[in-house]
């Protein structure tokens, strides 16, 4: 009888032990799922914070640009008097987070003209973010969209008149902000524009 009781007690203990392990294992799996969900939530929060921080850095950089340059109709403009070809000037603006200036209205063009005269000089030409490199006569901005506003000089020289050899546009301070087509390899000053977020 003692052996039977011992076997019965052993079996009960073994059963209790197995049940406890299953419960613990099941609990760990549930907690593991909860832990994974918590980790994923923390990762998401960290990514959100990083994105917000990057946006704040962009806004701070943009405010710095506006302080050094000028704000015109929802954009900041920053003049660069160093003369470069069109592609180098464009690349420099892109590296700073902007693009070559592209006036969208007559008022914006007039203000850009005034800013160029004050910041670079009264007898300078600056690259615009406008070209017809892909299709001669089809002037597009740097995103490839057709330019709606144009301010070509048409009274004396009937711009654009360069054909295939002059595929990039400049704003001329000597011609009151009128546009001319120019060889893209020529070296001109530039103005970068930055959209205000």
Automatic annotation (TrEMBL):
Organism classification: Eukaryota, Metazoa, Chordata, Craniata, Vertebrata
GO cellular component: extracellular space
SMART domains: CLECT
PANTHER family: TETRANECTIN, TETRANECTIN-RELATED
Keywords recorded for this protein, A-Z: Disulfide bond, Lectin, Signal
Residues in C-type lectin domain copies: 72-193
Record keyword Signal present: yes
MF (Gene Ontology): carbohydrate binding
Pfam families: Lectin_C
Keyword field contains Transmembrane: no
Species annotation: Collichthys lucidus (Big head croaker)
Full protein name: Tetranectin
SUPFAM superfamilies xref list: C-type lectin-like, Triple coiled coil domain of C-type lectins
């Amino acid at each position: 009888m003692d052996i039977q009781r011992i076997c019965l007690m052993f079996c009960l203990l073994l059963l209790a032990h197995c049940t406890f392990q299953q419960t613990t294992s099941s609990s760990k799996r549930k907690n593991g799922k909860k832990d994974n969900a918590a980790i994923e939530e923390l990762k998401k929060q960290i990514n959100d914070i990083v994105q917000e921080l990057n946006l704040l850095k962009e806004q701070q950089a943009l405010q710095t640009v506006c302080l050094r340059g000028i704000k015109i109709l929802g954009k900041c403009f920053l003049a660069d008097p160093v003369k470069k070809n069109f592609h180098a000037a464009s690349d420099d603006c892109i590296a700073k987070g902007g693009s070559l200036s592209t006036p969208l209205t007559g008022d914006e063009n007039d203000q850009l003209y005034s800013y160029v005269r004050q910041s670079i000089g009264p007898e300078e030409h600056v690259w615009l973010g406008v070209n017809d490199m892909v299709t001669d006569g089809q002037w597009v901005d740097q995103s490839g969209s057709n330019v709606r506003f144009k301010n070509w000089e048409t009274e004396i020289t009937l711009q654009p008149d360069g054909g295939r050899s002059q595929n990039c546009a400049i704003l001329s301070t000597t011609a009151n902000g009128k546009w001319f087509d120019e060889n893209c390899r020529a070296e001109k000053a530039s103005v970068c524009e930055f959209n205000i977020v």
